[in-house]
Amino acid sequence: MNITGFDLWARALLSIDAFAACDDSLNGVQVGRSSSPLASVAFAVDGCMETIRRARELGAQALFVHHGLFWGKPVPLTGTLLARTAELIQSDMALYACHLPLDAHPEYGNNAVLANMLGMIDRQPFGEYHGKFIGFKGRFPSPRTLEEATRLVLPQGDRALAVYPFGKKENSTVAVVSGGAPFEAFTAVAQGIDLYITGESSHSVYHEALEGGLNMISAGHYATEVHGLKAVAELASRELGLETMFIEYPTGQ
């Protein structure tokens, strides 16, 4: 399999083309490589110089990221963008990006895996963005405290960026949208959801959550967006026989 074959596999798996009208990321191959066989693919949240260098050192021929280099409009190849692109080309390493399709996928997406970690049942779509639902809402099998829910989404004991304890002591209903989706807290309040979990917070959300009686966990943009990548890496190894590895490079955000 070469990078073209990998693109066909990933594009079909993640329904990438279905998001063309609403995602300003250039989903798919952002930087190509030679047509030689693809044996090793690294996965990372961000297509930054450090993950590119680490992927090269690990012998990867492609780097699959959630946040790529190109976001919907022409930009000059200068500065850091030029340096990253040059590093990829010199290494004959492809860069593959998958943004919203990787958040939204019902089985391998960031939010699907987060929902699994929470034990979410009675799952329904939540968090509409340009006509596409990205996250999920549902119920806990039994009520969970805010502290228990935090441990479920941050099982390594990492500290959440922000926790708003403005609602019930025990949460029965929960919604999750990974990454930078603080304003879906408004939707959670409107729908009477007990607990909303996302990556980032916002000053503008604080009073809405407080006055709406909403518990909210901002677990970190990075921390909520590693899960889909790891799930796809495992599947690519199993289905395609590729060597895969995940490059941890947290930003603290």
Which tags fit this structure?
253 residues; alpha/beta; 6-stranded mixed beta sheet; 5-stranded mixed beta sheet; elongated
Task: Please tell me about this protein's structure.
With 253 residues, the protein is an alpha/beta fold. It has nine helices and eleven strands. It has a six-stranded mixed sheet, with helices on both faces. Strands 1-4-3-2-11 form a five-stranded mixed sheet, with helices on both faces. The chain is elongated. The two termini are 36 Å apart. The model has no long low-confidence stretch (mean pLDDT 97).
**Helix amount, in percent?**
25-40%
| Unreliably modeled segments | none
Q: Largest sheet, described in full?
A: 6 strands, mixed
Q: Strand order across the biggest sheet?
A: 5-6-8-9-10-7
Task: Briefly say what this structure is.
With 253 residues, this protein is α/β, with parallel strands linked by helices. The protein contains nine helices and eleven strands. Helix 3 links the parallel strand 3 and strand 4.
Write the layout of secondary structure elements.
Layout: H1 3-13, E1 28-31, E2 40-46, H2 49-57, E3 62-67, H3 79-90, E4 94-97, H4 100-104, H5 110-118, E5 121-129, E6 132-145, H6 146-153, E7 162-165, E8 170-177, H7 184-190, E9 195-198, H8 203-212, E10 215-218, H9 227-240, E11 243-246
Parallel strand pairs: 2-3, 2-11, 3-4, 8-9, 9-10
Antiparallel strand pairs: 1-4, 5-6, 6-8, 7-10
Helix pairs in contact: 2-3, 5-9, 7-8
